[in-house]
Amino acid sequence: MSGSRAGRCAAIAALGMSLMAVSNTRVMAAGDRALGEYLSSECVACHQVTGQHAGGIPPIVGLPEDSFIQMIDEYRKKTRANPIMQTIAGKFSNDEIAALAAYFGSLKGSSPARTNTQTPRGRRQ
Ligand code: HEC
User: Which of 75, 96, 111, 122 would disulfide-bridge 89, Cβ 3.0–4.6 Å?
Assistant: First the structure.
């Protein structure tokens, strides 16, 4: 019957859409990359997006998001001593830090010093 075939097609289409919705939700929960890119303009005045060291400033690209968030947290709690980064880290909300982590984590640095096994390769769109 043609009616039931159309129904099955609609069901398959609906399944596909809900799968897409699930994966979108996961990306959003991990941090809003677009917001991170917007906020990053302040960071890249010092940190190189190419992943190079510049004047004693470490690269922050390609880091696992949880490590990135943890480092910023340590500056916020002042358990990491650096007055510049403590001031900067203290200005952002948790959502904004997560967004920055998502953005910088998605960039691939070219620094050979970075050997994180968890570098998220292929996640860049
Ligand atoms: C005025 C220059 C400057 C700006 C602007 C700046 N940083 Fe930093 N950042 C530094 C310096 C210097 C260090 C090294 C501090 C230390 O020794 O702990 C650092 C360290 C870090 C680290 C730790 C890296 C590691 O491997 O230990 C992270 C993460 C970081 N910055 C993120 C950011 C983010 C995100 C922004 C923008 C919101 C930002 N920084 C803006 C100068 C800056």
Answer: 75
Nearest atom, ligand 1, residue 91 CA: 38
Centroid of ligand 1 to alpha carbon of 57 (angstroms): 7
Please name the CATH architecture into which domain 32-125 falls.
Orthogonal Bundle (1.10)
pTM, entire model: 0.74
Contact 83, 24 (CB under 8 A): no
Summarised one tens digit per residue, pLDDT across range 29-79 is 579 999 999 999 999 999 999 988 888 899 999 999 999 999 999 999 999
Residue with structure tokens 């991170």?
36
Q: Is the pLDDT of residue 122 over 80?
A: no
Q: Phi/psi zone of residue 87: left (φ > 0), alpha (ψ -120 to 50 degrees), beta?
A: alpha
Determine the number of helices (DSSP H) and then strands (DSSP E) in the chain. 5, 0
* Largest Cα span, the chain: 72
